Amino acid sequence: MDGSSNHISDPNKAHIILIPFMAQGHMIPMVDVAHLLASSGAVVTFITTPVNAARIRPIIDRIENSHLPVRFIQIPFPSADAGLPAGCENVDLISSPDLFKPFIEALSLFGEQVKHYLTTTNPTDVPADCIIFDSMNYWVGAVAESLDIPHIIFYGPSCFYILSTHLLKKHQVLKSIDDDYELFKVPELPEPVEVMKAQVMRWMDRPGWEKVSEEYYKTEKSACGVVMNTFEELEMSGLDKFRKEIGKKVWPIGPLSLANKDMDSKAMRGKASSIDTRLLLSWLDSKAPNSVMFVSFGSLSRNPISQLVQIGQGLESASSSQSSFLWVVKEADKSEEVENWLSEFEERTKGRGMVIRGWAPQAMILGHVAVGGFMTHCGWNSTLEAIAAGVVMATWPRFGDQFMNERLVVDVLRIGVAVGAKVPIFFVDKMSEEAMVKGEEVRKVVEKVMAGGEEGEERRKRARELGEKARKALEKGGSSFENLKRIIQFAEGENKHLERGLIKPLSLFL
Asked: Source organism's superkingdom (predicted)?
């Protein structure tokens, strides 16, 4: 995929290379970063792999047709060299827990191919001014330093989560806790919350990951600055604390989902929808404002049929007059048993509910006036999309940053109600009995989120106010709008004030 054109070869514009991590929840916001930077005056090269490019093809086509200065480059992923099945180029294509480590280790081999590309092919006739890379791409630091290209780390999760992990590591908290399910407070966190070791333990800090972990933290330390998918008004105290902790520039530029202004862009965010959007909008238009509970658990989480049945029972038995639901079931194509149960469930709930099998246009759905609640796994993309839309959440975290995001939504922002999940479940593992949530708990949280009353109305009011602040952040003069300009100015500073290939001292930017 070449995408070359004159406007992509402008030597007077900052040239920024973007390197996303190969997971759908990481690819989506990085595409939005490309769109926003190019719209703000930069030239962008977006590096990915053939399989991942194919998955976001509608978005690529839309950006290329808009004539924004974004070039998408496909570099082969070394699946075979890492002992992975052909085409295993994205985390959600990993079929077994045994393949996760080979996939992560393959990233460094991919890094060698990226370095070869950058040194033998001139992407835009203009050398790179800086690289913005997903934090999971631990190999970028060594490659960027060997090429004398400044590199900026992109954190996909909330600042609340990133700051928490930083503070836990700083104080070596987890080493002193033996019980994985003992509640403790994160030290120095501006808004103290209680969590469990099992909920915040990162895979890179577990035994056997020492080499990757060492590279990850080395790259984290060497980065010139930090870009985040959040906004100042949402996490002000956390951002202030994080800036002091790391001593570097931190540029929040979110919510990135708001880069998609029109209905078609919202519908395409992520992958092609599994449902006709006209049919979906017609169904939503038939529902009263704030009457639909939207249920979706992201691109990685999978529910066994036993859990799907419990969710279905909870949705079906919710007695609130506002109990319509829109449920995304990715598991439908995996099992004849699931499909048979779903068909019976749909027949029983006809009129009240709609089931989408596969990928749903989430940003578009959340922005519809009929949606009054969102049952979510608390992935940060989904959480921030709900915040931007002013929608209250029912929180059901599974792994990674999701439990900390739940604490932010429920305890700090107070715009969510917890389903009650305590036991983490990694996306490639089978769900244990302890991790299951019963239908009765699902029913209770649906009724609580969708009900009125003083408590419910206060929650909705807070959500609406945050949604308004989110929209203003990306408007001209808003905090995220201004931070986008500062990132480009940083890159232009590399271009104007130094000979190519030299890095400006960090002290000038801190």
From this structure: Eukaryota
Q: Which CATH class is domain 270-472?
A: alpha beta
Using DSSP's 3-state secondary structure scheme, residue 295 falls into strand
E-strand spans in 330-434? 353-357, 371-376, 392-395, 416-418
- CA dist., res. 88 & res. 131, Å (int): 25
Sign of CA dihedral 69, 19, 147, 14: positive
The string of pLDDT tens digits covering residues 306-363 is 899 999 999 999 865 457 999 999 876 667 888 889 999 999 998 899 999 888 899 9
pLDDT digits over 398-420, tens only?
999 999 999 999 999 999 999 99
Domain residue spans of the chain = 6-254+476-499, 270-472
6-254+476-499: CATH class: alpha beta
Per residue, what are the HEC states of 345-368?
HHHHCECCEEEEECCCCHHHHHCC
Check residue 320 and give its pLDDT.
55
Query: Which single residue is written with the structure tokens 């719209």?
Result: 39
How large is the average pLDDT for residues 64-71?
Answer: 90
Match 């271009």 to its residue by tokens.
495
In whole angstroms, what separates CA 302 from the centre of its chain? Answer: 17
Q: Which residues are within 8 A (CB) of 428 and not within 5 positions of it... i.e. 6 or more apart?
A: 94, 95, 96, 97, 99, 100
